Structures are given as structure tokens and as C-alpha cells.
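Collaborator request, handled under Task 6.
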Amino acid sequence: MWREAINLIEGEINALAARKQESAEFAQAANQFSKVSLGVQHVFERSFAGALRRLELPSRSEVDALATAVQRIEDKLDRLLPSAVNAALVPRPSRNRRPSTPPEAAAAKTVKRTLKPAARRAPKED
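C-alpha cells returned to the collaborator:
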């Protein structure tokens, strides 16, 4: 019962709003609101730009221009640098319990042997 009542009220309000939107007064009011809104937006943008200039901060357009220039420089650097090695092509270490050693390190590894300390001799007695 409540749902039907709410649906009926919503339907009537929507019909009333649709009839009012078709009137000349509504069109004139909407036009006036649009003009005022654009005027306020323009004044706000100008005052905000002035405040940014006084604070010596960049505007959005200046930041966008700087970002574009940095992107161009990065693109040029990418063309100059050699291409990166594909991560999928890099050999992966084997999956075992022993740590892997590169072949160069295994060949260069030398075995150090330590000498045992000489046994102490007892002093000679004459």
C-alpha cells in the first residue's frame, strides 16, 4: 500500500516538473542561471590565477606544459638508451637447497689450506 502511494506521488511530481520545464518561464530562468554561473566561474578563475601569480605558484596549464616537456625528454632518452633485457629471458636459478654460484665464481674460488701450528718443544736442558 505504501509503495503504491509513493509511486503515485513520484509520478505526479515528475509530470508536474515535465510540464514546468516546457514553459517559457523555466527556459528563461535556466538561461539566466547559466549566465550567472558562467560569470561567477570566470571571476573565480581570474581571481585564483591572480592569487597564484602573487604566490609565485604555477597554474594548471603551466604544470601541464611542463609535464608534456618532461615526457618529450623522457621519450628521447628512451630512444637513446639500449632496450632493457626482457625479464622472461633472464635465466632463473635452479630450485634446490644449495645456493647457486656463478661459473666464474666457482672457477675463481681457491681453497685455502691452513697450516697447523707447530708443536711446542720442550726447552733443552743441559
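The cover message to the collaborator said: "The mean pLDDT is 81. Residues 24-54 form the longest helix (31 residues). Please let us know whether this matches your experimental observations."
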